[in-house]
Amino acid sequence: MFDNLRDGLRSALKKIVGASDINEELIDSLCKDIQRSLLLSDVKAGLVKTITDNLKQRALTEQPPKGLSRKDHIVTILYGELARMLGYSGEVITTIDKKGIDDDPGVTAFFKPGKQNVVLLLGIQGSGKTTVTAKLARWLTRHGYRVGVVGTDTWRPGALTQLKMNCAKINVEVYGEEESKDAVGIARHGLEHFKPQNLDVIIIDTAGRHKEEAGLLQEMAEMHKASTPDLALLVLDGTIGQQAYSQAEAFHKAAPLGGIIITKLDGTAKGGGALAASAATGAKVMFIGTGERIDDLEQFSPTRFVGRLLGMGDIKALLEMAKGLEMQADENQAKRVLSGKMTIEDFYAQMEQVSKIGFRNVIENMPGLSGMVKEDQLDAMQARMEKWRFIIQSMTKDEKKDPDLINEARRKRIARGSGMPESEVKHMITQYNNSKAMMKQSKGRQMQGLMRKFGLG
């Protein structure tokens, strides 16, 4: 995600880190590199100039706080300016979370406890709104909310069927009326249908609009009036870049927005422009879509996002992903892993957990690893993990419990059963033994806790 922007910003920072002296010429060079990276990501030119002007002025005039080097202070300034560009105000705003996930600065508290919260999803055609409806329902159920969905898209053929299929995967009920063309009426009927069920959140999926179509915008305003939502969310396609501003502005006039969801950020060079333009409207960017899977919706925090762009990692995002798995780890397994006595079965369980979270997510969010592993290396590591899973599946129970039993004859049998060369079987066992040794030697509760969460050896 944002590979070009990330690489450009990190390359610019290397000039500061590697410099023997901080002077105005160096700061000018840094600002030019940052301008180039942001403009290539379709961030509005005026906004880019404001960021770099502030960076230059502060870098040349501010004195670093006690204990912080001038280089580190410049990095901190850039971090703050980019976060503000993406909507961070410096306030500590908390999320109401039924499962107790930690509060995070810059994330809006958007659902009120003790009532049915109505969420109205808006967006133009093709923004991915119906898919996002299911993703948001999934995110909410994972965080302890009881959810119902109302499908009011009467324009696109198959929209209700698609919504029902997606929500069936997560056991969320969808209310819709196949034959009706009265979207506002469907919304009212849906709210009445779910009222006795005492749900926490009801999501209303609407038909896609074009900001130029006055009639559809009028219908959207009527939908807002009829459903009186607690939260109106605009779904924007991240590939449109800074055009997001005019869309958000038009929608905001028709139905005051509480927040924005930006989709398709996993494969676009214009994502930075969409994020910055959206934040410039004053509406909060609440979620970003980072992939195709139903779990690929991430609560957005400007500070955490910028931390990942600059290679500082995001442990918190990893912890939330791990919590989202609702893993119920075997206590005995955890003790074996942490004491360096894990079996091949434990090693396999670790790989399964990492696979569920997403290997790429683990690497991109880990401080010290974020940005250090190249794309082709990530693919190679992912492929190797897949090979190891086949190898372990070809072992007997006794071999998994005690890999020392694996002699040359057993190794050949495992290789034949998994379809892998013997050398790969040897390499897997070597890595398993290295993981055991590293776990045994690792010190500090935080590192052990992190490894226990993610099964990283």
What does this structure look like?
The chain is of the alpha/beta class and 457 residues long. It folds into three domains: 3-85, SRP54, nucleotide-binding domain (Four Helix Bundle (Hemerythrin (Met), subunit A)), CATH 1.20.120; 117-312, P-loop containing nucleotide triphosphate hydrolases (Rossmann fold); 322-454, Orthogonal Bundle (434 Repressor (Amino-terminal Domain)), CATH 1.10.260. 54% of the residues lie in helices and 9% in strands. The chain contains 20 helices and eight strands. The chain has helices spanning 3-17, 24-40, 45-61, 70-85, 129-142, 159-168, 183-194, 214-227, 244-254, 271-280, 302-309, 315-324, 331-338, 344-357, 359-365, 375-393, 397-401, 408-418, 422-441, 445-454, and strands spanning 117-123, 147-151, 173-175, 201-205, 231-237, 259-263, 284-289, 297-299. Strands 3-2-4-1-5-6-7-8 form an eight-stranded mixed β-sheet, with helices on both faces. Strand 2, helix 6 and strand 3 form a beta-alpha-beta unit. Helix 2 packs antiparallel against helix 3 and helix 14 packs across helix 16 (375-393). The longest helix has 20 residues, at 422-441. It is flat. It starts with a helix and ends with a helix. Residues 91-108, 321-329 and 443-457 have low confidence and may be disordered.
